[in-house]
């Protein structure tokens, strides 16, 4: 039973990591869309992510479904307690998707401007709220001894969580700029390289501040990690990838820079998971009230059946993702069928 609970904790971590890497760059492209200089650049932004954005969001849906199936008390407590926050995230994701589809329906500057703002602000809001949600989980939520969570929406927008939200926006913008450097050419590509470099500096500064603040706010995140080989491995991958991003970016090795950014996101997610384990949602009232993988999982039979389904479904999802990215590899071109 314990092994199954750990496996499902790891699988959910993989799904969250996949979402952060894949939807992270297209949310970042959406944020950068707010700074596009003309209609051609805006179309390039949308068409660069057009074939893949909906597939990227499958990772989020699968992750939510996995939490529901494997750890239903966690799903029930968090999703009911943070209902308004999750509804805002959902509305932001819906609005940015609708913006992409509706933008090209009329040849009108005002119409396109409205949907351009919808796409950019939807991406910005979703990124900010995702980061704030992670910040609140690390900081801990007010879960009482009965497992009940009651917190207002504005209490979630505390300084630490907002810092994590801003860091996530900057990280996704850097990730998106590196992706656009792969997909665009000419002047836009040069500016994406410049944007990525500036975002990297901001991200590094914010990450250092966030790490120091985490050690003060949530010292339990660092308990026992210094003797954990996996934690040190994640630290080394994170440091190596973060250092290599500006090197590859400045030498126009766009694929290497993007892969390094992906590795940085994956290692940061791993560090968070290692720090939380075995907790899924810490309690800010008393750590003994935390939602853990051991006390809040489904039955052994459910975890076993779901594992069989996951072993079939996840490879299919990975194969589909590989096929789509391979099919639409190369520079983005504007055609009559484009957004």
Could you explain the architecture of this structure?
Helices cover 76% and strands 1% of the residues. The protein has 12 helices and 2 strands. It has a two-stranded antiparallel sheet. Helix 1 crosses helix 8 (159-183), helix 1 (2-33) crosses helix 11 and helix 8 (159-183) packs antiparallel against helix 9 (186-217). It is globular, with a radius of gyration of 20 Å. The model has no long low-confidence stretch (mean pLDDT 89).
Could you give a short description of this structure?
This protein has 339 residues and is mainly α.
Count of folded domains: 1
Oligomer: single chain
Class per helix and strand makeup: mainly alpha
- SSE order, one letter for each helix or strand: HHHHHHHHHHHEEH
Unreliable spans are: none
Give a count of the beta strands, DSSP E runs of length 2 or more. Answer: 2
Helix residue percentage: over 70%
Cα shape: globular
Question: If you compute it from the alpha carbons, what radius of gyration comes out, rounded to the nearest whole angstrom?
Answer: 20 Å
Strand order of the largest sheet: 1-2
Query: How many helices in DSSP terms?
Result: 12
Beta content comes to under 5%
- Main pleated-sheet profile: 2 strands, antiparallel
Distance between the termini: 49 Å
Average of the residue pLDDT scores: 89
Keywords:
single chain, 339 residues, mainly alpha, two-stranded antiparallel sheet, globular
Q: Helices and strands in order, then pairings?
A:
Blueprint: H1 2-33, H2 39-49, H3 53-70, H4 72-81, H5 83-102, H6 109-139, H7 153-156, H8 159-183, H9 186-217, H10 229-250, H11 254-276, E1 279-281, E2 291-292, H12 300-327
Antiparallel strand pairs: 1-2
Helix pairs in contact: 1-2, 1-3, 1-6, 1-8, 1-11, 3-4, 3-12, 5-6, 6-8, 8-9, 8-11, 9-10, 10-11
